[in-house]
Amino acid sequence: MSSRHVDIAFCCDEGYLQPLTVAVESLVATASQPSALRVWVASRSLQPEMLGHLANRVESLGGEFHVVPIATDDARLRGAKVDKHLSVATYDRLLLPDVLPAEVTRVLYLDCDIVVCRAVEELWAEDLGAHSLAAVQKPRAENFARVGLACEEDYFNAGVLLMDLARWRAERTHLTALAYIQQEEGRLEFHDQDALNHAIAGRWTHLDRRWNQQFKFFVHTAGFLHMTAADLRRVRTDPFLVHFTTGSKPWHYDNAHPFRHYFYAALDRTIYAGWRPQPRDWRERVHRWRCACVPPHLDPAVLRNVFRPGYKALKARLRLRVALAGTRG
Predict the structure, then answer these.
(1) Assigned domain for 260 exists
(2) Which controlled-vocabulary keywords does the entry list (predicted)?
(3) Does residue 128 share a domain with residue 19?
(4) Which residue of 8, 112, 155, 315 pairs with 16 in a disulfide if CB–CB is 3.0 to 4.6 A?
(5) CA within 13 Å, CB half, 166
(6) Could you tell me how many helices (H) and strands (E) the chain has, helices first?
(7) Could you tell me what percentage of the chain is helix, strand and coil, using 3-state DSSP and rounding each to the nearest 5?
(8) For residue 40, what is the domain's CATH number?
(9) SS3 at position 129
């Protein structure tokens, strides 16, 4: 691979075309050398003509844009869990060592639900040392032992991956992950991310957390996250990449992410300029109003997930108490 290229890869289907457009726009807008960018979009369903606006944007700055087709019948993904909330496209990052040209020996993979805030050339230049991957730790990864890791610090979020593809190919890292998915047959909690963590087995380089600002950084305290208060403040206020990691995204009406305006700012420089999500019914309007009344680092959707188990347990105890009182009567 020529040293002048900075290879960036996305995996996408039609459902994420708008977020992909925003991610690519933010990528090229912040690049220090956009002419060095070589953007690869791996997809089963997106055709080159559907991505012409992205190709024009990247190529107008001197970069390259390529669409990489992925076979829809790849037997290696048999057993991978897919449902209405989980597309097979999320597993396609595991196929990058095979579908990208052999000349691509290093690639920065980005999820589509990301806004780039800093030139990625700095991240691209990270020294991987003896490792084949650089990533950001997932904050409070409770399931680390489930995938065979010794501690939660060994578990990374798979939304931002600086990959040494030459080493992945030589060590068959992606094939190990694919085999693990088949072995587990849909039992993995975080799917391809769990499989990658199992395959890498803690042998990866830690990036500055600002290269993958995840929503949990807004929800928990520094002590709970095993961080200093100063480090957590930097991640919250000065992200390099904003990763919208919860089920609520900026293209949803009820989203309350404190950096959602970054998404809209990039979107307004694309063919989707002026678009904003609209409520599906009155419930979403009420929920958005409630979001506005909560401090920006406390997402109501997250709070519901935190408190719902306790609420359900309390309700069950009250029902039991009422039932027992009735039998005594």
Answers:
(1) no
(2) Glycosyltransferase, Metal-binding, Transferase
(3) yes
(4) 112
(5) 7
(6) 12, 9
(7) 45, 15, 40
(8) 3.90.550.10
(9) coil
pTM for this structure? 0.85
Nearest to 161 by CA among 115, 225, 207: 207
Separation of alpha carbons 92 and 158, rounded Å: 12
- Domain assignment present for 267: no
pLDDT tens, 55-101? 999 999 999 999 999 988 777 877 787 876 778 888 999 999 999 99
- Print the domain residue range for 325: 299-329
Residue owning tokens 């920006």: 296
Buried b (16+ CB within 10 A) or exposed e, 154-178: bbbbbbbbbbbbebbbebebbbbbb
Asked whether the beta carbons of 242 and 259 are under 8 A apart, the reply is: yes
Q: How far apart are CA 95 and CA 98, in angstroms?
A: 5
The two tokens of residue 69 are 């087709």
Q: Do 307 and 222 sit in the same domain of this protein?
A: no
Distance from C-alpha of 132 to C-alpha of 134, rounded to nearest angstrom: 7
Number of domain units in the chain: 2
User: How far is the C-alpha of 42 from the C-alpha of 67, rounded, in Å?
Assistant: 6
Q: Does residue 259 sit within a domain?
A: no
Amino acid at 249: K
For residues 282 and 301, the answer to whether their CB atoms sit within 8 Å is: no
